[in-house]
Amino acid sequence: LYKGTSSGFNCHPHFFVREGKLYSMGRYGFWRGHSELLEFDFQTGYWEFVPVSSPPVNYGGVGIFVDGDRVISILGENIHQPSNIFYPDKNGYSYDFNTHAWSSLELDFPSQKNLSSWILPSFDLKDYGVQLYQLEAHLGLLLLHKKENALYFAKDNDFGKIRSYSMAVALDNNAVFFDDYGRDYRANL
Q1: Is residue 3 classed as helix, strand or coil in its secondary structure?
Q2: Are 99 and 54 in contact (CB under 8 A)?
Q3: Cα–Cα distance between 87 and 175 in angstroms, integer?
Q4: This prediction's pTM
Q5: How far lies 167's CA from each of 6, 44, 64, 176, in Å?
Q6: What is the pLDDT along the chain (189 residues), one digit of tens a residue?
Q7: Is the omega angle on the peptide bond into residue 27 within 30 degrees of 0, that is, cis?
Q8: Among 68, 94, 75, residue whose Cα is nearest residue 132
């Protein structure tokens, strides 16, 4: 549906629908991480910038989750390649649709030796944000309880099936992951 010719600004973006509108957020483009919020205009066929105040500079989140009037962005990195800036910011930020402003988050993360990986998927459920995560030697799921801003780590799951899924479907606090053969693995939170 996009009628423009520009490309390269939103590599690995997070798409979501809110109040019937399609949005795209971040994550990397033109040598820097970012959290730009775009809204697709179906009438014109173009992405339009959503004006915000106090956006995070050079930050692109990995786990991006919608909770009512806010978007939570965690486990990101600050990247500005011309300045040789590359450092993680796992706490992240929250965007409020009512005030159109970003604010920083302070979350109690379990320690993690490896940086987050932009290619690992995250899943946005009703009450939880789910991110594949490595805690010490365990591969598992980092669960963000959206209302409480609380984090939990679950290692009792089949990480491999979730990491290599072909299709995923989420409804309320349930997710179903299908492999290439149509076999499913269910995660109920």
Answers
A1: coil
A2: no
A3: 31
A4: 0.83
A5: 28, 30, 19, 8
A6: 777 776 677 788 889 999 999 999 988 888 899 999 999 999 999 999 999 999 999 999 988 999 999 999 998 899 999 999 998 888 889 999 999 999 999 888 776 555 556 667 788 999 999 887 777 666 778 889 999 988 888 876 666 666 677 777 888 888 887 877 777 766 666
A7: yes
A8: 75
